[in-house]
Amino acid sequence: MATTQQVLLSPAELAYLHASLSLTPPIRPDGRAPNLFRPLVAETGILPGTNGSARICFADGTEAIVGVKAEVEKTRGADATEGGEDAEEDNNREGRSEWVELTVEIPGLRDDDSGTAFLSAMLQEALLADGGFARKLWINRRYHWKLYLDILLISPPLSYPLPLLSLTTHLALLATRLPRLKSEGDEDPFFDDDWAAAPYLYPRDKKSSKALARPPVTLLVMAVGRNIIFDPAKEELAVADVALAVSVGEAAETDDDKGKGKGRKLRLLSIRTIDPPSRLTPPGVPNASNAAYGAAGATQKQPEARMAEAEVVEGVWRAPRGGAKPLVMAALVQKALERGGVADEVLDALDGVDLG
Amino acid sequence: MADRRRINGPPGATIPPIYEDASDKSVVTRQPPRSRPANAIRQTYLKTGVTPSASGSAYLEVEMAGKPGVSGLKLSCTVHGPRSLPRSSLFSPHIILSTHVKFAPFATKQRRGYLRDPTERDLGSHLEAALRGAIIADRWPKSGVDIIVSIIEGDQDRETSRQQGDEAWDMMNTLSGCITVASAALADAGIDCVDTVAGGVAALVRDDADNGKPKIVIDPVPSEHDKIEAACCVAYLPTRDEITNLWFKGDMPDDDMATYMELVQQGIQASKHANRVLVQCIGETVG
Can you give the residue ranges of the Exoribonuclease phosphorolytic domain (chain B) (predicted)? Predict the structure, then answer.
């Protein structure tokens, strides 16, 4: 798993990082504000053979591409004999989660690695959480679109790739178009061959060409001491007390929401705890028990082994033990969902990407 | 990389039976609505030390919904270790956990293969996160422990004819069972933990009988409810008041943080109930 990779930092470095991230305001190794994302370069429509595609490159050199392909498939268990005309009602449309297939490929990891399975399950879960996405793939009562999302990390996983993969998937889905349906009712589907007439999977506003609804994004949030830090780099994640992946979607704006504060109306779709690599870091040895500093009776070969049970000394790194308080977790979620907060900024920034 | 050493049959070659829907909606056999109170979990049976060859083991059964005395979920967990790592592996200052969760091929309505599929791997990583917080890992440098949970019978209702898309919610119940049984097996193996961790599930459900008003129930059975809006599975350490793993799924507006907090709180309650069973079971073994 990407998070459990050995972190090559010494206990002294970990203690320093933890201390600087616990300050108010925290000082991050790359000088970012606690709620600032890494700068990124994004483009869409890079793969002509797909229904939608996107590429994002983060400033730290990690890069991902996503291709979306759609196929027409016969709906299993659909009865063709019962061809009532009421099939056109929108309420009858029911999507199934098996209509979406999502795969994640990370170089250097086996494809049956549990970390990769965890990542793809997380992204798929957010996408299908509200049931609205699978409903978009409904063609008629006998046929549906089967959507394949293939997520490729091109660079080696320099940091936990979750935010990168999630943002790239978001853009690829926004750029996805499906051929326009020409047939009616429950006939065998027949499509318009004019690609320019193909509607977007996420419909757009005609004038501003902004998407009316959007796919979810997954944010990586971590807590160190009393601070909440977004989009942590690998070194920051190595000293995390707790790390959460929070998926948020945008809710449709109703009329009475307008003028009620700034920012979008968000929806919480899924939360998962990420096992922070900090639990696997080596502990430090305080001077008081280190023979090199003249500690009496510290003639053992391995002072770490004895010190593991001693009490915490300030400035000496100890891997965190136990879990996180429920209130800390709630604060992380609250911060991610805040109106006008990080999720909002990320969605605004992605709005600026030319969807071609 | 797929398994190339065995000759496996084509995946998904067996098609589960598809039953015709009753044309009259009222005849459709439905699970009776939930009869237990909203804040009670189902009867649970837990026993440690069932597999003599393993260093620690436990067995868990959860009663089937609506049928007292009949068990639904059946889990068996074995713990092998702590044992030394192979010479070729890197130095580790902590114990290395590896968790495997596997459904028996006959455990669910749809037959599962012998190889672990992505959902099983996903459950395995959830279980690993839940247990890693509980184990005092630095007492065993350079060693590893294998935790294997086999799901002998899944928590599925076999009476209703149609798949209702409930599998996703069933996973949460299965995970909470896995956490509890693995924690009992770890205690049986004598591996030091900060506390006994137990799993609990709470869900926000909407029933037509209550005029569609949402309410929070613990240990939900998907087939007993009309719609599940959101659910969360919590792995909780009661004496430290800490959560080691939180898994939330659903759809909730951002201005409804109070409901979210209440949902997690109820998940913690469910986990406390499961923990009582766990502590009693371990106490019987020790005493």
Answer: 41-191
